[in-house]
Write a structure and sequence with these properties.
The protein is of the alpha+beta class and about 400 residues long. The protein is about 65% helix and about 10% strand.
Length: about 400
């Protein structure tokens, strides 16, 4: 009986690699697929492409049709002055307008749209990283619950199966009646522990499904995640840092657009149709017209300089945030890296402790068969061992949580 329980402690951690188990990758894929925010970002990027087409269309010839029929009634002592109104106006014109030499303006505004699209892509990338990090962290929590629940359940099963054996040994005088009562108390306590660990597992898996947009409870069969520390931990490789580069380009683009607003603008226009003061004259008032519109900014109250000053302030703010971010990134990395080193050291100590406890349990098992030690003493040693084993599991999961934070540091 003792040997069966002892072996169970080791085997329980190996039963979770079944073919139909739920993996971390499957939850991440579901979370990315079901995310409404990522769907929104994708549509915003498609909308950005349409904005580019709209901009190009706005610089093409604009053709409009104008129809107007106005009559100004007059009387002997009232009415508008005929010298102003001509009594009426009847027109049907086709108007064409085209802006000339607009290539630089088009390119500047296209760059504005492109930078906005780059920001959208970056935000989508940041959202993916945040979602993966959150799902991975919750999966690790649920997996720890899953292992602990199965461990508790297997111990309960082994203790329950051995009741008859212990009872027979009590009847023969090998163990005391109090040993059998202690075993029954352990079984009840272990049952409560199983119920608690199952409820915790159920709650954490429900939260995991919620994060991933998965409906239904499903089966609790999680596989151990294989997380390894990535080597590309660098603030300049972070998507947040990339946003600072985009913001710099936005400031440059804003300055260029301001400069373009102070360049001369040339528009040509033409129209054709009829324009008459009386319906009877319409057949005789058909015609066409053409012209050019040339605009040169002269003075606007020094608005250009004030706009430059605003851009300079934005650029100074960007530089300050970038420096602060790099400093904070390094501090977070150093802190997490130190935690990882200390956790690895702790795991080594726990492993050594487990090794000593395993040897002690084996000695107790031999002495129990000879009736040298009490069953209660063995139970105490065994409980200490299982507690250390659970501590090892928790510490191992903490280590994976630290790696998860490092891998998605941004």
């Amino acid at each position: 009986m003792i040997k069966n329980i002892f072996c169970t402690v080791f085997l329980v951690f190996l039963i979770f690699e079944k073919s139909h188990a739920q993996s971390l990758d499957s939850f991440i894929n579901s979370g990315l697929k079901n995310s409404p925010l990522l769907y929104d970002f994708n549509n915003q990027q498609l909308s950005g492409k349409l904005d580019s087409l709209l901009l190009l269309a706005s610089f093409k010839p604009q053709i409009n049709q104008l129809t107007q029929a106005v009559h100004y009634p007059t009387g002997s002592d009232w009415g508008y002055d005929a010298a102003i109104t001509n009594g009426g106006n009847y027109a049907a014109l086709l108007n064409i307008t085209q802006t000339l030499f607009s290539k630089k303006r088009i390119n500047g505004q296209l760059q504005t749209i492109d930078l906005l699209n780059q920001t959208l892509k970056l935000n989508a990338k940041i959202t993916v990283l945040d979602l993966k990090k959150s799902i991975s962290a919750q999966y690790l929590t649920a997996y720890a619950d899953f292992v602990q629940y199965n461990f508790n359940k297997s111990i309960l099963q082994q203790l329950t199966n051995e009741q008859s054996t212990i009872k027979a040994l009590v009847d023969k005088g090998v163990y005391l009646v109090t040993d059998f009562m202690n075993l029954q108390i352990m079984i009840k306590a272990q049952g409560i522990t199983c119920s608690q660990s199952y409820n915790q597992l159920k709650n954490d898996v429900s939260l995991l499904n919620f994060l991933c947009g998965i409906t239904g409870q499903g089966e609790f069969n999680l596989t151990k995640p294989e997380l390894t520390l990535q080597n590309n931990i660098n603030p300049e490789s972070s998507p947040v840092y990339a946003q600072f580069r985009i913001d710099s380009l936005k400031n440059i683009n804003s300055r260029q657009l301001i400069d373009l607003n102070y360049r001369p603008k040339i528009n040509v226009f033409a129209d054709g149709g009829f324009n008459s003061i009386a319906p009877s004259n319409i057949p005789h008032n058909l015609g066409v017209s053409a012209g050019i519109n040339f605009t040169v900014p002269i003075y606007d109250g020094k608005q250009r300089k004030l706009q430059y000053n605003k851009i300079d302030l934005a650029e100074n703010t960007r530089i300050y945030y970038r420096r602060y971010y790099s400093s904070q990134y390094r501090m977070q990395y150093d802190q997490l890296n130190n935690q990882l080193v200390m956790t690895d050291q702790l795991l080594t100590e726990i492993k050594n402790q487990l090794s000593d406890q395993e040897r002690l349990i084996e000695l107790y098992r031999i002495e129990l068969e000879k009736g040298i030690v009490r069953f209660l003493d063995f139970i105490t040693v065994f409980n200490n061992y299982t507690a250390t084993k659970i501590t090892f599991l928790v510490t191992e999961m903490n280590r994976l949580q630290i790696i998860n934070q490092l891998n998605y540091l941004k």
